[in-house]
């Protein structure tokens, strides 16, 4: 059976239920919790994966091979060789079709989508709209335990495209809008001066699906229109990837969406850099 993806960056849970045997499903979950002091902490989502996942799914560890090891900040983008090896381990070949999802609001899956599509031009990747919750709402089966063994794949990524921008580039930015994907409260507490706030979570409907009508309204409110190039950021490059996914789903060209990979983690590491508060631009 020949399977082709729908146009656009998303597939529905209904589509995946029909075609799951013909794609590689990648669970990109991260375990997010609060510590005793009320601070948000993050850990590998592997235990969540072993508890429940879409049948046949492999696990993409954003605390492992799908991020750069020993980097200064969590979730730093890995190099081509490391990412190629991670994809080979889950059985990916150049012709493979990948569907990514997570068990939160989709931003972690969007991170893997952005790495593969924006950085390396791999067009055979889609995100599951609504993630694991959408799958469960259809009363589809789930499984537990370790991922099934697969034959090692042969995919080899090439040279990364210049889709990621550095702290130094952001500090010198004068033309392209800086767009922060954080929720409104943390944005108002601290953001890069001149930024506009487009919170990724506000672009999802009540079921956690990307609402392209909300995306369009948010762009109009911010006076942003394609094909204007944007520099997206957040706290650590995750919600920014979610925002990129939502924008592309609404028709924004992916090549116009650059990502500040270190985001506020990098910006705030130097106390001499300016920081703004309030509603922003």
Automatic annotation (TrEMBL):
GO terms for molecular function: thiosulfate-cyanide sulfurtransferase activity. The keyword Glycoprotein does not apply. InterPro entries: Rhodanese-like_dom, Rhodanese-like_dom_sf, TST/MPST-like. CDD domains: TST_Repeat_1. Residues 53-144, 184-276 form the Rhodanese domain. Gene3D superfamilies: Rhodanese-like domain (3.40.250.10). The keyword Zinc does not apply. It comes from the Bacteria. Keywords: Repeat, Transferase. Pfam families: Rhodanese. This is Rhodanese domain-containing protein.
């Amino acid at each position: 059976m020949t399977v082709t993806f729908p146009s656009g960056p998303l597939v529905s849970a209904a589509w995946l239920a029909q075609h799951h045997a013909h794609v590689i499903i990648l669970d990109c979950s991260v375990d997010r919790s609060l510590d005793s002091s009320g601070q948000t902490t993050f850990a590998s989502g592997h235990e969540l994966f072993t508890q429940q996942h879409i049948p046949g799914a492999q696990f993409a560890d954003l605390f492992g091979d799908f991020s750069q090891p020993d980097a200064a900040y969590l979730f730093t983008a890995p190099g081509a060789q490391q990412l190629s090896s991670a994809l080979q381990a889950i059985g990916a070949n150049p012709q493979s079709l990948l569907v990514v999802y997570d068990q939160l609001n989709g931003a972690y899956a969007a991170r893997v989508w952005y790495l593969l599509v924006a950085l390396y031009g791999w067009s055979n990747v889609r995100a599951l709209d609504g993630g694991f919750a959408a799958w469960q709402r259809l009363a589809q089966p789930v499984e537990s335990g370790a991922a099934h063994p697969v034959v090692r794949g042969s995919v080899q990524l090439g040279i990364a495209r210049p889709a990621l921008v550095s702290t130094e580039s952001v500090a010198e930015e004068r033309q392209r809008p800086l767009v922060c994907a954080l929720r409104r409260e943390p944005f108002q507490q601290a953001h890069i001066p001149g930024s506009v706030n487009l919170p990724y979570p506000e672009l999802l409907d009540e079921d956690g699906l990307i609402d392209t009508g909300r995306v369009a309204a948010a762009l109009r409110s911010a006076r942003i229109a394609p094909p204007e190039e944007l520099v997206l950021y957040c706290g650590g490059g995750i919600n920014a990837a979610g925002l990129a996914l939502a924008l592309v789903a609404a028709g924004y060209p992916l090549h116009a969406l650059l990502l500040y990979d270190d985001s506020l983690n990098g910006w705030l590491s130097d106390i001499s850099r300016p920081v703004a508060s309030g509603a922003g631009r």
